[in-house]
Specification:
The chain is mainly beta and 152 residues long. It is built from 1 helix and 9 strands. The strands form 3 sheets. It has a 4-stranded antiparallel β-sheet, with no helix packed on it.
C-alpha cells in the first residue's frame, strides 16, 4: 500500500514540474511576421493581411537604427496584458522614396506609391498573452489609423 502511495506521489510531482515548464510565461521569444499590404483607392485606408507567423525561442540583439522617414510610416506596438511593452516604426511599404542619378549625372529623387506590397517584421516578446497593433501614419492625413490588431 505504501508503495502505491509513493508511486502516486512521485508521478504527481513529475507532472507538476512538467506543467510548470509548459506554463512558464516569461520565456523570451522572437516572432517573425510576414504581411501583405494593399490600398484599393488612393485616399482609402490600407488593408493588411497576415501571411505567415513564426515564433521561436530567443532574443533579438539591440539594433540602433537611425532611420529618417518621409512622413509615411507604420507604427507597431506590442502589448502584454493590455500594457504597452514595446514599439517600433518602419517606413511605409506602399510609399517608395527613390534616389537615383538622372540625366546629366544629376542626383534625382522620386516618390511613388504602389498598390500592393509584402513586408516582414521581427518582434521580441515575453510570454504568451501578447497582442500587436499596427497603425498607419500618412503625411497628408492628420490622424493615424489602426490597420490591424493581432493576438500572438
Amino acid at each position: 500500500m505504501k508503495v502505491i502511495v509513493l508511486l502516486i506521489l512521485f508521478a504527481s510531482c513529475g507532472l507538476t514540474k512538467q506543467n510548470e515548464r509548459n506554463n512558464n510565461t516569461d520565456e523570451n521569444s522572437v516572432v517573425s511576421l510576414a504581411f501583405n499590404i494593399r490600398k484599393e483607392k488612393q485616399d482609402a485606408k490600407s488593408v493588411i493581411e497576415l501571411i505567415k507567423q513564426i515564433q521561436s525561442p530567443g532574443t533579438i540583439k539591440n539594433q540602433n537604427e537611425n532611420v529618417s522617414y518621409s512622413g509615411n510610416y507604420l507604427s507597431i506596438y506590442t502589448y502584454k496584458n493590455k500594457k504597452l511593452t514595446d514599439s517600433m516604426t518602419i517606413e511605409h511599404p506602399l510609399y517608395k522614396h527613390l534616389e537615383y542619378v538622372g540625366a546629366n549625372n544629376a542626383f534625382a529623387v522620386k516618390d511613388t506609391v504602389v498598390t500592393k506590397e509584402e513586408f516582414f517584421i521581427r518582434l521580441q516578446i515575453q510570454g504568451r498573452s501578447n497582442e500587436i497593433k499596427i497603425f498607419e501614419t500618412l503625411k497628408n492625413k492628420p490622424k493615424r489609423e489602426e490597420l490591424i490588431s493581432l493576438k500572438l
